[in-house]
Design brief:
Blueprint lengths: L10 H12 L6 H17 L1
């Protein structure tokens, strides 16, 4: 089950995220952030 999370991010970072979403690799900003956090967690396990 997915849960809602509220975070605060710099405007320029959000603009960069939106550009990545427009590129088509991610469905939306939530998908991109979830992917990134999971990648970070996998790296931290090593």
């Amino acid at each position: 089950m997915k849960c809602k999370l509220s975070i605060t991010i710099e405007e320029n970072t959000i603009a960069l995220l939106e550009e990545l979403v427009k590129g088509g690799r991610f469905r939306n900003k939530s998908h991109l952030i979830e992917y990134s956090v999971n990648k970070f967690l996998r790296e931290e396990e090593k």
